[in-house]
Amino acid sequence: MNELRGGLIVSCQAPAGHPLRDPEVIARLAECAVLGGAAGLRVNSAEDIAAVRRRTDLPVIGLHKVRHGHRDVITPTLDLAAGLAEAGADMIAVDLTPETPGPGLKLIEHIHGLGVPVMGDVSTLEEGLSAWEAGADVVGTTLSGYTARQLPTPHDPDLHLVGALASRGVRVIAEGRYRNHHQVRQAFAAGAWAVVVGGAITDPISITRRLAAAAPR
Q1: Peptide bond before 152: cis, by omega within 30 degrees of 0?
Q2: Where are the domains of the chain?
Q3: Do residues 44 and 21 lie in contact, with contact meaning Cβ atoms separated by under 8 Å?
Q4: N vs C: which end of the chain shows fewer Cβ within 10 Å?
Q5: Which of the four CATH numbers 3.40.50.1370, 3.20.20.140, 3.30.450.20, 3.20.20.70 does domain 8-212 have?
């Protein structure tokens, strides 16, 4: 875990139907992130993790997204977590919001039984404190702005949540809508232990869309 502290974690993911949706393509994206100086990677599914692991030994935060309601929930069961660990994940991210259909906080202890640390993905300060008290090794602000009660999703990252968690002694990973180096610096200044950036690095569609919006035609 110390390898991640103070570093940039790059989320290398592509949803179904995306032109980059292929495990080997994801692995190449991960390799590019490594060459660019990433401290770690965040990867969805055992298949993609296995492909990434063949190319790098950089720390991998594994997760498995499952559609539930209006959004994807993150690694809601122990069976999914075990598959991620077997594929080579060094840490496993789990959804610890009230919207997850899984066992919630109890999943932390179960995953620790696999010998793997846990990243608890939350949307509020209360959820983050509960995750930390329940034994999560790190707490991610990943789901802030994405739960049903927080829609519509804000444009900017939730730096307030980062600071609120950090000020209470929580080891917090800032994640969610980080798009540029200014925001990354702000997250570390707020007390983040590490910062995750995803689509702003690894999704050419969203990158192109953002820049094309500035063009006159």
Answers
A1: yes
A2: 8-212
A3: no
A4: C
A5: 3.20.20.70
